[in-house]
Amino acid sequence: MAEPLPSAPDYDGAHLRHVLTSAASSLGISGFSNRLNLPEASIAVVILADGLGEQLLARYTGHARFLGSAWRDMDRARVLDTGTPTTTSASLASLGTGLSPGQHGLVGYDVYSPQLQRVVNMLGKWDEEVIPEQWQPHPTVLETAEAAGARVLTASRGKFRTSGLTRAVLRGGEHRGANRIEHRFASAAEWIDEARGGSTATRSGAPQPLLVYLYVDELDKTGHSQGAGSADWLKMLESLDSAAADFVTRLRTRFGSQVSVVLTADHGMVNIAEEKRIDISEDVELLQGVSYTAGEPRFVQLMSDQPEAVAQRWRDRWGDDAWVMTKAQAIDTGLFGPIDGDVSGRIGDVLVALRGDHAIFHTERTGTDPLKMIGHHGSLTRAEREVPLLQL
Fold first, then answer.
1. Pairing label, strands 151-156, 174-177
2. CATH number of the domain that 22 lies in?
């Protein structure tokens, strides 16, 4: 008997999509709602630690004493839900726009484009014919906050300044790039100090609101290559913890209660053993009736004009190890949230969300390099979809 479908993400409650909008509202910027009740401030910083799921942080707080102290404080820590699928492009789009995947349209890592009739990438390899501002036309939180009078900064890697994902969902404000975690934090702190005119400067009237988005991708990158919890991954967690502690101390010393700093993540991560990474490229039965594969190894999207038949074949093969559903079932369940008109065509006709400790690859399309990845995410297990929200 097929397993019941997973519950829909809590898009209207404790959800990642409300973090940046709540931070903007906490600054007094009109047009936003402080759904997460973040403290009022004139400087708000949102740190996004890519891949630092709630369960991973809970397991390794011994390597993150500063973050762990906040995580153990019930007044400073909450658990947030993420969207469908649990992948960076979809989650950062929800963070950056305040919308559900069904609205912003970044519904996976690899996504089918009905207009181009091919699969396109939503992260680091945007198709030249896909215009990010057209693919995701809704205003971003950063550009709306800037238009309302706030100064806005993104502190990230320099190469992300003009990336397709930035242009689609994080456009707006200034950008400072740095390739090391500690340099990114230092750069953000320097920008805040400069924007305030120096720590000893005084000025009449309310200060200009400052909104900072600080992105840390090292945990995710290391988790993919070495595994979450590996020695290298733990070193990255320790670096993040140290940099965050120094950053918060510096800002609190200079600006006191004017500053609000929160940390969250876009998804968790699970390690998949080599023998559980399954290549379906020569599996005639599973690919029968499938015109395109997309998605990610833990959340496979299949395009087909016979979805019921394809879904049944995949259910028969995977049993309790996967939630297999048609697009109609997923939309009815609310997995993608409300659906804008043309977004439905980007979602796979059949969706395969892995429940067990497997990952599915179609190397005929992707090449064999993804098979080397140890850490994975994308599905709707608690380990992948629950992320922390820490008030630092």
1. parallel
2. 3.40.720.10
In this structure, the answer to whether residues 194 and 229 fall within a common structural domain is yes
The model's confidence at residue 341, banded by pLDDT at 50, 70 and 90, is: confident
What pLDDT was estimated at residue 200?
42
pLDDT in tens, 30-48: 999 999 999 999 999 999 9
pLDDT of residue 4: 86
State the Cα–Cα distance between residues 285 and 305, nearest whole angstrom.
16
Element (H, E) at 354: strand 350-354
Q: Phi/psi zone of residue 117: left (φ > 0), alpha (ψ -120 to 50 degrees), beta?
A: left
Residue 8 placed within a domain: no
Residue of 295, 330, 300 lying closest to 313 (CA atoms): 300
To 5 degrees, how large is the angle CA 146–CA 150–CA 156? Answer: 70
Instruction: Specify if 3 maps to a domain.
Output: no
Return the closest-CA partner of residue 371 out of 267, 295, 276. Answer: 276
Do residues 197 and 59 share a domain? yes
Whether the per-residue pLDDT at 192 is higher than 80: the answer is: yes
pLDDT given at position 197:
83
Give the 3-state secondary structure of residue 166.
helix
The 10 Å CB-count burial string (b at 16+, else e) for 313-341 is bbbeebeeebbbbbbebbbebbbbbebee
